[in-house]
Amino acid sequence: MAVYGEGDNIKEKDTLNPVSIYAISKLTGEILCTALLPLHGIDYTIFRLFNTYGPGQDIKDFKQGIVSIFLGQSICSKNIQVTGSLERYRDLIYIDDVVAAIEMSLFSDKLKNDCYNVCNSKKIMIKDLIETILDIHDDPRDDFVVENIGSHEGDQSGVYGNNLLLKSKGWSPKVNLREGIERFYNHSKNIKSREEAWQKLVN
Questions:
Q1: Is residue 61 predicted with pLDDT exceeding 90?
Q2: pLDDT in tens, 120-139
Q3: What CA–CA distance (Å, rounded) separates 189 from 174?
Q4: Looking at CB atoms within 10 Å, which of 21, 57, 95, 99 has the fewest?
């Protein structure tokens, strides 16, 4: 979804406006994919994934994955550090819903030779995301400190997508934010202790 830059209720045919080198690389990849059909007769399906999260993300990597960053901080420390405004917003999509879209493209021709947003079509502010994480956390809300540490170049202020095109093909997101956060948290909260036990075993 980085190819869009910023915007609300963005549709696949809306103007693309990448605002970072990362986003430009994504758009370049799309152009290469679409060129395969007329040049070599190779079909394609392009998914513009919005902010995907869920079990399997590295909760100790505080540079990638907006949900995993804050969830990881809540598990590894009591200090939630936020870059940019708490009023920024994203469209968050759970990993199982993303996989369902990809599987659909693999096992049917419904999505062939087109581009689709994979998103919830919901505007989730960073402050609401963090509150949801702290709300489902085992530790009391008052134990945590949320602080702003500035911003970085190329960060989007707000974006959420329109998923009606993909829904018209039979797909729909099944996991809401709270359920997704609970699943992710319950999967991840014991990782630290599991790794410590493993280190004791091998050392």
A1: no
A2: 999 999 999 999 999 999 99
A3: 23
A4: 21
pTM: 0.89
Phi, psi of 99 (to 5 degrees): -60, -40
**Cα atoms in the 13 Å half-sphere on the side-chain side of 156:** 26
Residue 153 or 181, more confident: 181
Per-residue burial over 17-47, b if 16 or more Cβ lie within 10 Å, else e, is ebbeeebeebeeeeeebeeeeeeeeeebbbb
Q: Over 60: is that where the pLDDT of 166 sits?
A: yes
| The pLDDT of residue 154 is above 70 | no
109: Cβ contacts below 8 Å, ≥ 6 apart: none
- CATH topology assigned to domain 2-191: Rossmann fold (3.40.50)
* Cα separation, 165 vs 160, whole angstroms: 15
- Mention every residue, 6+ apart, whose C-beta is less than 8 A from residue 135: 141
Could you identify the residue written with the tokens 């370049």?
28
